[in-house]
Amino acid sequence: MSRDTTQEPLLLVEKLSAGYGEMLAITDIDLRIYRAEIVALIGSNGAGKSTLLRALSRVLPCTGRIVLNGRELSAATSDQVFALGMVQVPEGRQLFGRMSVHDNLLMGAYRRSDKSAIAQDLERIYEMFPRLAERRRQMAGSMSGGEQQLCALARALMASPILIMVDEMSLGLAPIIVEQLMDILVGIRRNGVTVFLVEQDIHLALSIADRGYVMETGRIVQSGPARELVDDPKVRHAYLGT
């Protein structure tokens, strides 16, 4: 999908730096994400990808500029960012294991007050994720890894996001489950929700993305259309081994 980059980006990030203590893990990050596109952030383990998501979510202190849908977020709290519609599906899923699937999904809507819309969205989620509908009364922690990832993604959608950030969704899952999850992300984008996909599996991420950013040692070193990155000799040598 081609992007009209003359429009205002949904997410604008300029000169963003963040770290732990005095050590910076990411430095001078610039990126733009436009409405209803899938953008992949690729890079090896330890490149700083998850740190970037934590900074964007305002869980981690940072310097620089973050603008979501025209709103400056640099001084915002994580709750304020969530309320404005930027929602993260964290690495490792982080479900409430001793709560039912149904209650986990409702936790995604905890900041919403529109009860009738929440009920409608819940039914829509169960239609989108029939496996979760079958297991709605089951404890989330007793499900398989793939089912838990479905639940984590569905819980994020219950927050009614405008931008959903997905961190290492494929980790430890069977290829057939990963393929299903990627199809769901494409469907989410088709419904108007923007997706920022952070993924170690380079080929997987770029196969569904419109554009991509390559991160190495805390910096963005390359960006462009996903198809161009897949065909780029440097990217293929560094991440695909070809």
Automatic annotation (TrEMBL):
Gene Ontology biological process: L-amino acid transport
Keyword Transport included in the entry's annotation: yes
A molecular function (GO) term: ATP binding
Ranges of residues in domain ABC transporter: 11-242
A Pfam family per the record: ABC_tran
PROSITE patterns in UniProt: ABC_TRANSPORTER_2 (PS50893)
Alphabetical UniProt keywords: Amino-acid transport, ATP-binding, Cell membrane, Membrane, Nucleotide-binding, Transport
InterPro entries cross-referenced by the UniProt entry: AAA+_ATPase, ABC_transporter-like_ATP-bd, BCAA_Transport_ATP-bd_LivF, P-loop_NTPase
Entry-linked CDD domains: ABC_TM1139_LivF_branched
Domain of life: Bacteria
Similarity annotation: Belongs to the ABC transporter superfamily.
Protein name: Amino acid/amide ABC transporter ATP-binding protein 2 (HAAT family)
Species in which this protein is naturally found: Eoetvoesiella caeni
